[in-house]
Amino acid sequence: MTSLPLAAGTIAPGAEMEKPQPSAPAAVGPLTEQTTAVIIGTGLSGLAVAAELRRRGVESIVVDSLDVLGAALPVVTAALQRCEAADSAVMQERNEIIRHLRHYTASRHVDVRNSTRATQVTKVDQTPALPGTAHWEVQTPTGILVADHLVLTRCAQGQLRSMLTEFGIAMGRNLAAAMQAIGMYLVGVGELITPTPRDVLRQAKTVGQAIAGKVNPLGTTFPTTGGLAILPA
Question: What SUPFAM superfamilies has UniProt attached to this entry (predicted)?
Fold first, then answer.
């Protein structure tokens, strides 16, 4: 019998077809998300900043407090104990403001992640070759948040000093200006006396203005998304 060459793709009689081998699953890296500002702390200060930024058309992501630089350290040090805790009127005002802020941020779809904690903060230096490189990377258990601006609202004083030293910033009279130059801001922390709720709102407004001014240096008006009566005018 004369054998004929098989056409490409033809299986010879009696031959077994090879079973395709399952491919190895592709390696999946951590999820990276880009935003304008990352706010660390989902309490009064964090929500106040997020609300102020939303009013000014600036996107942000709010995550829970920072753990990385000394997880054993308390969120507030002895010098930062909340002296107003015994003042029921102040606490009532604080709770009422938080209630308003939660309603506002929820109704304006602000990205508040109460169950996501920041675990590490990395400063990313800009280079002439990549002028648009973001300043900050915030690591969380679910991925990395990349942003131009970082707002700290929950941080022990010891943690704060360690962070500033690592980023080359000395504690002093020009601390706020030095931090703002690298896109880092404090609201409700860093002072020996815990600010009142109204002080926090004023700080949040100042930080919101500063970030919005950097995002929009030419002063073009962004469409606002509604006002919040409790924020200072």
Answer: Nucleotide-binding domain (SSF51971)
